[in-house]
């Protein structure tokens, strides 16, 4: 499954266009390698997503084409979530 679609289906990022923009700005890595929006995501992959002052690391647990809102958090496991302090 494409990275941008996975991020939308899992609701880590609400819109696919936003997921595509973030990936194309090289703010997402999969298993330590910079990923484009079209990069394939597999079960077991570790994603590191840099949002402005927050870095989110998740592990992919499942892949589905569609999911209900209440089931979306079952597609991934949060490994770490860190915030940068701004002065």
UniProtKB/TrEMBL annotation:
Keywords: Protein biosynthesis, RNA-binding, rRNA-binding, tRNA-binding. Residues 1-64 form the RNA-binding S4 domain. Gene3D superfamilies: RNA-binding S4 domain. SUPFAM superfamilies: Alpha-L RNA-binding motif (SSF55174). Belongs to the RqcP family. Key component of the ribosome quality control system (RQC), a ribosome-associated complex that mediates the extraction of incompletely synthesized nascent chains from stalled ribosomes and their subsequent degradation. RqcH recruits Ala-charged tRNA, and with RqcP directs the elongation of stalled nascent chains on 50S ribosomal subunits, leading to non-templated C-terminal alanine extensions (Ala tail). The Ala tail promotes nascent chain degradation. RqcP is associated with the translocation-like movement of the peptidyl-tRNA from the A-site into the P-site. Associates with stalled 50S ribosomal subunits. Binds to RqcH, 23S rRNA and the P-site tRNA. Does not require RqcH for association with 50S subunits. This is RQC P-site tRNA stabilizing factor. The gene is rqcP.
